[in-house]
Amino acid sequence: MIVVAGSANIDLVAQVSHHLEPGETLIASGYAVHQGGKGANQAVAAARLGAPVRFIGAAGDDDFGDRIVADLAAEGIDADGVQRFRGSSGLALITVDDGGENQIVVVPGANGQLDASRDLAGAMGGATALLVQLETPPAFVNAALAAGRAAGAEVILNAAPASPLKAFDTAAVDWLMVNTGEAAFLLGETEGKTRNQTADQAERLAAQYDVGVIVTLGADGALWIARDGSQGHVPGRECTVVDTTGAGDTFAGAFAAARAEGQSVEDAIRMAGVAASLSVGAAGARAGMPDRAAVRAAMND
Ligand code: RIB
């Protein structure tokens, strides 16, 4: 069982020719409402690959909240751990430009009400992997990390959106998963311009936090350094980019799914990269997330 503790949002997405400058007004060429939220997206990515998934999070008592819960259940995810709060569900205001790149403003809504009072230890029953992100309050993140560690699950912290880690219990983390921008942010440095520079940043993050580190590199794939010092790189896969929203979530969910079924770190990263490359081919965080058959087909290409 994979347990995902994190945010669930409704994504309000405008398609734009380019991203806004301060003070600029743009006319969008299209608009769509999608399911989103880093936590819920990662849960869906893992479930589509056939993993049993339990999601722990929050939704408002609005129509969006009903849709969040119904959609998770429709994906075969155990959504009994979605707590309903009075008020609005989490929202993400997203623009996607012609190159498929996004800008996102997150309104936490119900996600912001999550705290350490949840029975997270109880929610870990049967968990082999736990996935957590930084889109919910630190008290909730830390309670989840501690419960995952106590349950003996492989604990994966996707440090997104980028936030300083000093508020978080990194001692409970096995794998820190970041993109190049997040890796640089955590070190207070500029983004690595080459794979070697990013590998060096990953090595220093691994030493600083005593964790394994996985860095996604966009079109260049992903690199990792494990706690035992072993490291490697898996190349990217050529793909058509319509919308990169949710690519990192697809990678995280697919990695957890692969690890939960016993794949090696390298194989899990390879499968996660293929899943992420497929996910960017459709508009919306989840529309392009592949099922197992699609991943298998792409891996045999
Ligand atoms: O990672 C993509 C997600 O970030 C979107 O679905 C949006 O909801 C924000 O949480």
Can you walk through the features of this model?
With 301 residues, this protein is α/β, with parallel strands linked by helices. The chain has a single domain (2-8, 37-88, 112-299), classed as Ribokinase (UDP-N-acetylmuramoyl-L-alanine:D-glutamate ligase, 3-Layer(aba) Sandwich), CATH 3.40.1190.20. Helices cover 33% and strands 25% of the residues. It has nine helices and 13 strands. Helix 1 (38-48) packs across helix 7, helix 5 packs across helix 6 (195-209) and helix 7 (247-260) runs antiparallel to helix 8 (265-279). The two termini are 30 Å apart. 51% of the residues are buried.
From the structure above, extract its key features.
301 residues, alpha/beta, UDP-N-acetylmuramoyl-L-alanine:D-glutamate ligase
Multimerization status: single chain
Number of domains: 1
Helix content: 25-40%
Reported for the largest beta sheet, the result is: 9 strands, mixed
Strand content: 15-25%
CATH architecture: 3-Layer(aba) Sandwich
CATH fold title: UDP-N-acetylmuramoyl-L-alanine:D-glutamate ligase
How far do the termini sit from each other? 30 Å
Bound ions, cofactors and other small molecules, one mention each: alpha-D-ribofuranose
Radius of gyration of CA atoms, rounded to a whole number: 18 Å
CATH superfamily: Ribokinase
* Continuous helix count: 9
Which class of secondary structure composition applies to the elements?
Answer: alpha/beta
Shape type = globular
User: What is the number of beta strands?
Assistant: 13
